[in-house]
Design goal:
5-stranded antiparallel β-sheet; alpha+beta; 3-stranded antiparallel β-sheet
Amino acid sequence: MENINLKELPLIGKGCHGKVYRLDENRCIKICKHAKDMQMEYGVLKHASGYPQFPKVYECKDRYMIREYIDGQNIQDYIKENGFDNGLARELTELINVFIKLKFTRIDIRMQEVFVTRDYKIRIVDTTRYLDKRALYPRKMLKEFKRLRCYKKYMNFLKENYPELYKSWNKK
């Protein structure tokens, strides 16, 4: 990282753990305030390596990570502009199924961390707390669906296509 001048790079995101800058067409760099947070995120991405919903990591040291840049639109903005359909519902549910398969302790999704790519795939950009926080169902995601007025449509989709999840989440 010694040759990277952050002041020359466009800031593309920031949150409670750090900031993300665009390096080039395919890569970005995330700088965390604390090395512990960076190592947690790296651990999750390493654990999820090979799953297309997660960005590839090129390098990770101390408080920074160079990873794949996800070119897409935030899912909340996407739904506001384009609506919510079964394709999007399926992509989100498959992401949650990956969380379950990987034995994440947090299967909830913060919607501001999810992007829809040009080829209509779901990608998640911040994975720091998926192995240490606990959430047995996607409470935040469902709450956001209510706010975006697509909750009933999503639950109907689950009922028809993923009845086990529907039964489990509909009780909550």
